## 1
Amino acid sequence: MPDATSLIPVFADIVGADHVIADPDRLKALAIDGVVAKLMVSPKTMEETAKIMAAAYKDDLSVIPIGGGTKMALGGIPSRADILISTKRMDSYLDYDIDNLTIQVESGLTIAAIQAKLEAEGKGYFLPVDPPHSRNATVGGVVATNDNGPKRLLYGGLRDNVLGNTVVLANGDIVRAGGKVVKNVASYDLTKLFIGSLGSLGLICRTTFKIGLKPEAEASLLLPFNDLSKAGSFLQRIISSFYYPAALEVMTANTMAHRKDILKTEGNYIVAVFCEGISEAVDRQMKDLSEIGKNEGALAAVPLRGAQHRDFWIAYRDFADDWSKTDPNLILLKSNFVISKHAEMFAASEKALSDAGLRYALAAHAGTGTLYTAILPGADLESRKESIIGEIRRLTDMAVGNDGNLVVERAPFSLKKQVDVWGRIKSGFSLVRGLKERFDPTGVLNPGRYVGGI
Amino acid sequence: MEKKQLLQKLAEIVGKDDIRTSEMQLQEYSYDASLIKGKPDCIVIPESTLEVSRIARLAHENHVPLIVRGTGSSLSGGPVPVRGGIVLLTTPKMNRILEIDIPNQRVVVEPGVITLQLKNELAKYGYLYQPDPASEKTSTMGGNLAENSGGPLCFKYGVTTNHILGAELVLADGEVINVGGKSLDNPGLDLIGLVTGSEGTLAIATKIILRIMPKNEGVKTLLAIFDTVNDGANTVSEIVKSGMVPSTLEMLDNLAIKAVETFYKIGLPTDAAGLLLIELDGLNDGLDRLAGQIIEICKKNNAREVSLAKNNAERDQLWTARKGAFGATGRLRPNYLVNDGTVPRTKLPETLRRVGEIGKKYNVEIANVFHAGDGNLHPLILFDERDKDELARVHKAAFEILQVCVEVGGTITGEHGVGVEKLGALSLLFSPADLNALRKIKRVFDPDDILNPGKLILMESESSERKEVVYA
Ligand SMILES: Cc1cc2nc3c(=O)[nH]c(=O)nc-3n(C[C@H](O)[C@H](O)[C@H](O)COP(=O)(O)OP(=O)(O)OC[C@H]3O[C@@H](n4cnc5c(N)ncnc54)[C@H](O)[C@@H]3O)c2cc1C
């Protein structure tokens, strides 16, 4: 097999020498689970990307896409890594059709940059997605990892808000999936196939999103509880009501410990509710939910508005990033399950981890059935490793038992080697493998990182 | 295998009584709600996943086409056995609501459940399944899944695919798998997303998991009458731009209004050029003010009249009119053809104007009933199938309308599917590389082209690159 470095002149020809990096030190800094690529190439356009991929394909070289680099810890350990393709220079707005409430953008743009641009229009336009790593996550990364945030409850997830993806396949073919209209049933829904596919089928170069218009009013409500079961029954009551909060969250008291400037509430557990809509309906929800909350045992009901409200949600989404700064060995698990089990899953995780003597911080999207478990092993990972692996297995069983699964979103290399980061393989995997073989017959895209080690 | 042997094997699976072979019965399943026809070799009525699986295995081993059929209300030829084969009916015996899981806001149904039957059942719990194809009284959940059906409420709540979270599937070779589930975001490829809208060509859904929601506290329904269709379309754009998210923004043009009035006699002005049906839902608080704001926008855009439904009876009447619009319009002539292109909302006035011009050019009568909020047009072209010259003009007009939709940034079908009808229009939208990628999907799921062959995309490349529509 030829070495990737032999393609340096070819790539330099396509993107310019400045955008081909072969310096081992710079590449080492981008290692994925310790695996260092031979080259990083940064195309400016989809056509350049297609040429790079076609050339790599001919020489059977593997390709790993990278955007903001916020989620490179996700997935299995790469079985090989020849060329990193950075999408960061693909940062144009292509079909900026705000009148129709759709935009097509290149995949290297950050979600934050798009939000800022839409906000600058001054008319309330926004992208209805709020994934974690809010500053640096790019469109391509967010779509490829299907990374949803708290407001998914009201706005739906990526599969509901992405209208089209244009993708470069392993061999350099450009494939356009979907379009810019909300209703579109022209042949198979290829758009969805690429959402959450972690670059295993193709490199996403362009994505078309629905955009939203900010409702008249928004505010949030923080409800501290000492008793988890009370928080749980409050949440379930709201989920089953005609109130329609945009997000419905519960976390442990320490989850936002790094942001005491933002979260000052007492209580062992904090419930956070995001309300938005027409002014009267927001006022009503803030009032009713405070009352219901207090009746259900909340210690207080603290309204947040304006900048306080906005900052809270960004800090909340990024809680695991904050923890990883003080605890670089942080292990982040994301489990999904049927929605009524949010309190049970939360309580069981807490119990399992505290019984094992592990530190942790939890945050759950109660309304959509997602739990983030951050295990904080501190400096001494080795002595705790076995017990952490045991807990990951136990939590996976629990999520699977509640019709879900568990993904290890990040973990130190030594631990990753010993767990299946994608949780339990479910039925239908032969189709997943079949699709992989059709779209990437030589297995050069993100090899080893996706579900089932494909 | 000889046909006789095949029938015998099928009888071993489902029992002799659940096989139909008489000429009359075969005729009955030779069509759908389009004009496409094709006769099956036999009809089979399974009652369980296991039976479906065994039928699939039999079809697979013998290379016999297998076509699932709900109630045959498809408008694109979806369930028509254009290459013969076994038609599998879901409605007689696979029609149970298996589970209503209120705490988790999910239901599990068999594919033969009728959409409205599910909604009515859920109403008893104060819950809603949102997607509402106008055909909900007759269409099945299996058909809704396979066509990724839309409806008026989809402007706010999304189409069927946004509400289907999982399914039990029988694959082409009889293997039974489960995809998705009651929970969201299962890791791995979005197989349920891929199967939804696949028109029975990838797998047979034997159980479907759906998302349901608690009923809204309040609803307001408004009716606005316009003297030009453009005023109506501009009203829609302005409402959407204002940031309001009505659950419904539906329009009818003059011909459709006249047809509905003739049929339902509910007092619609038959000289009006456009009728806009708007619905708001949510908490009661502020709904009146929003309705007021909408009335203002309608008036500003020259609405002749705007009224608010005073009670449920009035509201039901408006909805009956909207949902019966196809049927009523269709009665004006022996046949009608529903076009289903979708365009970006701001292109509605231009597209409608061009649709009108196309009608004139080919001398065919076109009525418009459309989901204005999401730009999904339904030009209904009226004709008489027996008039071959007219039929030919209808084909040309229909194709040109699709061309216009694609030209302005839209698509060839918003909710009715490609079926047989729009195979020849795929290349308006897709490059050869795109079409190849779509074929890869079919090859993974059904390499031998057993499930509903000849629909959605043809495995032989030339035919998908033909540029025409096929209606009969
Ligand atoms: C008057 C009228 C109004 C309509 N209004 C609307 C509307 O507002 N919105 C809209 O979207 N559509 C509408 N339609 C079209 C049609 O009703 C829908 O496409 C509907 O979902 C079809 O359901 P069905 O049960 O009749 O399916 P069928 O017509 O029987 O089949 C449709 C397709 O689904 C496949 N299929 C059926 N069951 C299964 C299964 N279990 N597994 C896999 N594949 C399966 C079939 O093979 C076929 O390809 C309308 C049709 C009519 C006649």
## 2
Amino acid sequence: MVIKLVTIVVGMFGFGFALVPLYDVFCEITGINGKTDNTAAVYESVIVDDSRTVTVEFLTRTHTGMPWKFEAQTQRIEVHPGELNTVEFYVRNPASRPIIGQAIPSVSPGTAALYLNKTECFCFNHQPLQAGEEALMPMQFYVDPQLPEDISFFTVQYTLFDVTANATETEKIAMTQR
Amino acid sequence: MSTATDTANEDLQHDHHDDHHAHHAPSGITRWLFTTNHKDIGTLYLWFAFIMFLIGGAMAMVIRAELFQPGLQIVDPNFFNQMTTVHGLIMVFGAVMPAFTGLANWLVPMMIGAPDMALPRMNNWSFWILPFAFLILIGSLFLPGGGPNFGWTFYAPLSTTYSNDSTALFVFSVHIMGISSIMGAINVIVTIFNMRAPGMTWMKMPLFVWTWLITAFLLIAVMPVLAGAVTMVLTDKFFGTSFFDAAGGGDPVLFQHIFWFFGHPEVYIMILPAFGIISHIIPTFSRKKLFGYASMVYATASIALLSFIVWAHHMFTTGMPVGAELFFMFATMLISVPTGVKVFNWVATMWRGSMTFEVPMLFALAFIILFTIGGFSGLMLAITPVDFQYHDTYFVVAHFHYVLVTGAIFSIMAAVYYWLPKWTGKMFDVTLAKWHFWCSLISVNLLFFPMHFVGLAGMPRRIPDYSLQFADFNKWISIGGFAFGLSQLIFLAVLIKASRKQGEPVDDRVWEGAEGLEWEIPSPAPYHTFDTPPVVK
Ligand code: HEM
Ligand SMILES: [Cu+2]
């Protein structure tokens, strides 16, 4: 009996940790917390639906402690579902040291996240910038024509984090060599 | 439920009693350090809980002193935050939970006719690690930089990115508290499954035993999840993981899901044993059998099951999709159905009973009324759209203090007054106890009722300063707070007198209408009871 009960305890401790991947999988399937796919989508034989237009708005912010300037070049764009579009984001590192940034997207309303397909995005990778360096980061996407009828407007917000502390060895070497 | 111990049995018991004298020969501190006796351990738990109640209460006095007037007067905001945090942690894990465990230790074996708890050595351990947990927690307040200041709910990133290094101590102390209550829960379950007297079938078990059994299952199900949550906070803060850090692919909202998956069942851990206690006291002083025994058992079980699917009612404002908001709203409201069943059963038990109003009954009646007020404010908070306004205001503070102070803590006081004469063999000082009751009742309402109003008017919780329009109410709340704090010193006086065995001797049954095995053994309850199991008819 005691052993059985201890097994429950150990199992529930494990369950607490299992909630982490479960949460991610759940959110990925249902798209309810606005997380987008972290891998590139393939744009292939997608039919453009000219009869609908969807407004997509881009917001940017930097997390506390991240000194970069970060702006969407296109703040609002009207697209037809299925049509491939590219937007660009401007970044500049005003600090006197190299910094690695990582952008995390969040879509609102959350369900739209499932229908935002990115074929290319700066948010897929760490973005290093030397001191004073600036860059334009592209993001290429299309809206899945299956997007529910009631969504005609959604917002994509990127939050830029300073992840220099978590950089891999190769990234560190690359940064000092440039 | 009629039970009997025949005279032969009682004789046997007395013989045994003498045999065992060698056992409690160690006196002084070693008696308490090494004891494996359920009554000793129960007493230790109860005194520990009471001391924690006074320490946590002193912290509440600091909070109320600061909030007596608008502006910053007495403590700096960071220390204020440490006070709200540690007050909450101490009251939940140091006062309410150990007090219930203490009552379980004293009462469960006596109620089911067992000689002791099933795992006495583990019982000793589960108590003695507790003081260390709280030494660590309270000690961390004196370190440079101070103790935890992120609220008892330790939301990430407050507890990760923005916390100070003493967070490690906080995490370890929560681990120890968790281990302690898990061991306590395992002990209760094994005792109830294996050590019931012959004839004590499941549906004859006293309700305190039933509610504790279900509570114990809740404990072993969710305390490990809490341990997991604090461990993730620890590794996020010190070892570079990103469970709750969006930059590394984690999500701070995930923290809230994990915490409340523990947190909501936790609030039922703190109220189910109270339901058990009240279900003993109301029938005794109404001199009637409890109305709807079976429905009480089923209501308890369904509350426990439902408590696992309502956690996100604490998270309505985190941006969940409408479907989820509605699900958690309706599931939460569903819980009030079995809770209502209980309240109706208590009222039906009193209906046409020959009621008397001894001190335990006074506390039990106050419990029913005031806990129900807390249930109603809970229902208001469960309505998603209005929670957007009420969330994180004093209305929430009012809600959970009605269910916890006038609910859980009043039930513990009722239980202590009800069973104390059985434990000491002497009637406590009734006059003092009545003073304790009336002073507590009046001051507790002065303390918590106006919190509803300031909350509805928009005063946020966990702040050391507030805008001027809340000044009058806060002054009264603070006065109520000091009065409630002082009233507990009367309780201390009653308990000291009782522990010195002052007072009129009582007979075995103590209260005229009391039913159950614990009332059939002598008063004071001998050190060893039921060495030979009684026969339950
Ligand atoms: C009728 C039953 C109940 C309902 C419908 C209910 C509902 C709620 C809701 C919706 C909240 C979240 C409010 C917010 O943060 O905006 C809440 C908070 C809380 N409830 Fe209840 N509740 C009930 C009973 C209880 C009981 C029995 C207890 C404990 C004995 C309890 C303890 C708490 C605590 C401690 C909090 C605040 C947690 C925090 O944020 O620090 N509730 N309740
Ligand atoms: Cu809850």
